[in-house]
Amino acid sequence: MPFDSLTFLIFFFSVLAISNAIRAWTARKAFLLAASWLFYAAWNPPFVLLLMFSCTLDWWLAQRMASLSHLGDRLPWLRLSLTVNLGILATFKYQYFILGNVAWSMERFGIPWQAPDMGLALPVGISFYTFQSISYAIDVYRGRETPIRSWRDYSLYVAFFPQLVAGPIVRFHDMRVQLAQARGTTLPNLGVGISLMILGLFQKIVLADGIFAPVADAAYADPAKVTALGAWVGTLAFAGQIFCDFAGYSTTAIGAARCLGFYLPLNFRFPYAAIGFSDFWRRWHISLSTWLRDYLYISLGGNRLGRWLTLRNLLLTMLIGGLWHGAAWHFVIWGGLHGLWLVLERLLADRGWFHVETAGRLGRTLWAGLTLVAVVYTWVWFRATDLDHAIAISRAFSDGAAFIAAWPSRDARDTMALLGFATIVAVHWAMRSSTAEDLIARTPGPLIVAGLGLMSAAIVLSPGTSHAFIYFQF
Amino acid sequence: MASALLATTCVATAEWYWRSAGYYAQVLDSRTLWAIERKRVTGGSQPVFAILGASRIQCGADLATLQRKLPKHRSVMLAINAHYPIAALRDLAQDPHFNGTVLLDLDTHALTRPMWEMQQAWVTHAAREYSPSLAFNRILLNHWQKRVVIAQHDLSLPNLAQRWLAGLGMPFQPYSTLHANRSCNIDFSKTNPVQARAQFDAHVAANRHLIDPGIPPERFVADLREVDAWITAIQNRGGRVIAFHAPISGSRRALDDELFPREEYWDAWAAQTSAHTLHFADEPALAAFLLPDDSHLDYRDKPAYTEALIDILVRRGWLTP
Hints:
The structure holds 2 protein chains of 2 kinds. Helix content of chain A is 71%, strand content 0%. Chain A is mainly alpha-helical. Chain A is globular, with a radius of gyration of 23 Å. The termini of chain B are far apart. The chains are: A mainly alpha, B alpha/beta. Chain A binds chain B through residues 1, 5-7, 10, 42-44, 121, 206, 210-211, 411-413, 415-416, 448-450, 452-454, 456-458, 460-465, and chain B through 2-7, 10-11, 14, 28, 128, 131-133, 136-137, 140-141, 144, 150-153, 155-159, 161-163, 165-166, 168.
């Protein structure tokens, strides 16, 4: 059940009430686990079994690994975990992509082959909980974590409903202590938690769905009818939409967890105020970018193997990151472009031509502008329906004359989306060294009251066509 | 608490304002609402009377009258405003569990191939995305939307802000009301039907190239062999399909006659298909109803119209009450 639904409202407050009525910490954790399974089953009940299987397998494999002292002895168990987890992910998420590309390749060799339709639905959140499980397995393999004995606690770590379907991707290290210590709802946490949930739902319902999505959807609806104005306005609107949608979800998830006494990691830190591409990825989907750094980039060798292999590892990590987002080549290209930006930034620094950290104010400002433009352009490849669509949009970007001619004919919806995006960028710049929680802590009480009250009213007064959270498809 | 009080005050003020301005609450259609009804056409022991079509039948068939005239049947409204129903017919044909009666309300334009996929997104949602959780949420939404005006999309803050920026006036005041069972009432006393007819004529003049598919009769009839196979599939399971061309008048009828001369299109298909076909012009009792905008009935005429339609279907031996 999505966060922006009446069902979730009833579910969440019921869970809040019941969990706090349960005194024993172990019983409370069992209840939260059951509630999390119920939450997941709301999408597609049979897939709860897949989630349970994944949890049980990795819990058991971790026990096996920890009983072996040598890495070499542990390796087969790690490989088994990776094979099963990635195999499940490949089967459910990448079946059409893999089979489609095999069919395409065979056709190039003159062998006609129709890829079978396995008809498998994509389990919601599979990319997220799979990565979470893999991080646990690798941490145990590396000896950074000792496996947890309690299957219930491990399952709760993976399946905890606030972060189950769209993150943040939580490291076991962050949850271990929290699972060990009894916790429940406190007034301060409830206040912060509810505030974050209101902020998150405001971002999703009012901004993402109400202002940005209609403009982005209209511009990207028909690949055959791409215009210069639509390309620019639609892409800027999508840049606003994907931030408000995903950050809204993460903020709501963090708030819901906080209400229950749990602390989830920050997932967004005002990314449209990034100065440079490395900085962008320290601010956007932080839990994923750090996961990719720690479990993919470093595993490939990181920056320990010389300049060119470092650049290769960067590019490869981002290409795979793109593929994680979607089983299609335009997602791979999206990731590849980000990899390219990172590589270019690294090369400029290595050669001493430009280093973000030591650049002057003008240089940093220009680099920030370039970062924003490049990030916005890259969203084209994320939002487009396929490669041809992305190419058409990209071409339309460059038609300056058509854009200027069409500019006066933009409608109020377009203007609102542009103003909205500009406001987001301004807010990000004002807040770039802070967090939403800091802001809440620093703001006078009456202002918080007014802000929360007005945001809550805006949520209720913004019924519209609900768009599924974008990252649910991952 | 103070925030909640502020929010409640704002929301209540907005609700009071819109009610004072004459806006009213109503259920808003959605794919999940359609899916809930779609699930009702299979299962259970009652024979099903499934109503497919667009706004004419959605706002023309009175479900209470149907309940009275066909007490043994479960009537289910699957018509979708502004969307022709061939994809929904295909969906029922491909459902091995469906063997009820289909009242398929469509005009000749709806039968042309470019119009076939209009309802497919609803069908896909019901087949792939629908879940009990979505249905439960939808039921909660029904209760909310039936009771509060602020639940209307047109009155949402983003929509109002856009209208203000564009210098437009107050949001459109609807003159139709949708119910949770997906049937609809149009109250023409709340609008100007003459204006509605004039708007339609202007729309046709501006979009002629989109409305006229330019399909010759031979291709029209040949294309429909595919639809006939779906009709046959339903009949082979013991079901029945009644294709009904609902009444139209004035410029709508003139356009229909011009683009799709009856003998070359509707009648030619009627001769080929195994479905029962009923054209409104063949039944004076149906043609006599006033259509204020040349296409739809006023809600006050729904019961009489529905009764007349059912009586005709029973008289022709196509329905057993």
